[in-house]
# Entry
Amino acid sequence: QVQLVESGGGLVQAGGSLRLSCAASGLTFSSHNMGWFRQAPGKEREFVSAISRSGALSSHADSVKGRFTISRDNAKKTAYLQISSLKPAYTAVYYCAADARGRFPLAPATAGYDYWGQGTQVTVSS
# Structure
């Protein structure tokens, strides 16, 4: 049974930073591209960042470039999303996802992922 468990969210002040984690189990982690998405209240889930199986390649939505960094540790079966210079507009539930097919280029849409976590809430206060 595949499980993706996000952690690291919470209530933070604008301008701060946060690191989200996604711990995977039940799958061969190093064989999956990983992605992060977010969903704000009343909005559709949107792509944030993705990273290839080895970690050599990554991509980010234009809206987060320079502020978000995605990484992974295959030995720990964990993906990370480092968020800096937090803004209230970043308030959302953040989800991690796994792509079993190793798509290239990295999938920037929900349809490109096979497994999803339950999400972690990030709330940024002004």
Observations:
- The two ends are 40 Å apart (CA to CA).
- The longest strand covers residues 18-25.
